[in-house]
Every structure is written in structure tokens, then in C-alpha cells.
Amino acid sequence: MDKHGFLSLSLSTVYEKDLVERADKVIIEVSPHFPRTYGDSHIHISQIDYIIETDRDIPAHPENQTNDKERLIGEYIADLIEDESTVQFGFGSIPFAVAGCLTGKRDLGVHTEMFSDGLLDLIEAGVVTNRKKTIWKDKSVADCALGTRRLYDFMDNNLAVEFQRGSVVNDPRIIGRNHKMVAINSALEIDLTGQCCAESIGTRLHSGTGGHKEFVQGVQYSPGASL
Questions:
Q1: Which residues are catalytic?
Q2: What is the pTM of this model?
Q3: Domain extent at residue 119
Q4: Which of 143, 135, 125, 130 is nearest to 85 (CA)?
């Protein structure tokens, strides 16, 4: 909590603030190891009924490793992305491989659901500047983050990264307002008609789709967009 009584939701604003505003009782857990983030990511102590203080460290995800085949796919996709585009990356080895192949691009922007280490690498390389974005200019926008401790340390008290609610970041109409929006996501299976599946392998549930569908829709509203 800061001196004004505000606490940061840290690495996820997908639906947490909506829950706080609707709940009859609000119980939160706080830890000094979580980064303090900016944007629509703060709640005031007057909204909270109970606070549990812990010293637990934040879970970290190891940096993705890519093989030769994934890097080749990344190179093909990177060739399709123009300078000054605003990008969204899904999570996994293919989006990470694409990020690694974008080091020759200029003035990319970030409007993404998941913020990961691949985007941090592009920021540190000077590829992502957010200077040409249409909305949230000069800011990298996300609603959640997962990665290494290096990523979390970068986000701590960093005004260049802004967290907004999932209902905002993943709104197709808002996504479509971005300049030259590009959405990069993975599929787990594809059939002979071109239908893609992103959440299951056969009959086994693998993961949720997250904002996959919304970004596919959103880029269709953006001038000069591609997916």
C-alpha cells in the first residue's frame, strides 16, 4: 500500500477489479515481492474488508526455449510484420520465436493480453517504442503478465507499462483502434478445412483460449492490420 492507501493488483487486471467492485466481502493477500504496476490496476484500502500479509515469492515461468523448426516459422511470420505495427503475442514457443525474429523492425507498439519475456527483449533492443501507437501512445498495454523474475523487476513502478481491465484490452473495437494491429497466436490443431483449435488436443482440454478470438476479430477493424 502506498501513502495514499492504494494497493496494486500487480500482474493481472483481467477481471480482478470487477470482482472487487461487485463482491460483498473483499479479502486480499499482499506480498512485498509482487511488482507494483500502473494503469487501471489500483484499489483503495476502503474497498477491502480483510488483508492477509505474506512473504511468499511470486511464481515465475522459465523463459521459453525454441527449436530450429519454431525459429523458421518465426522468421516467416516476422517477414509479414511491418515497421510501426502494434503487436499482440499469445503465449508459447511460436509467439516467443516470432518475437526473437523481430529485432530488425522499428517503432513497434504493444497492445496484448499476456505480457511475456519476448516483449521485454524487444523493448530492451529498442524495437518496441510505442511511439506510433494510436491509443495509449508511448505505453505498452496488457491485462496480465507471466514470465521470469527479470520481467517482474522490469514492470515494478514502470510507467511505460500500463495494465487495463480485460474487458478493455480484449474489446475487439478497442483493439481495432490501434495502428496497423497485428495478432500473433498459436493453434494446437487444425483440420483439413482450415478450422483451428486452441484449447484442446483431441478430447483432452489443454488450456483456455484467453483473448485469442477477440484479437482475431479486433485486427479486422484496424487499418493496415494482419493476423
A1: 113
A2: 0.91
A3: 68-221
A4: 130
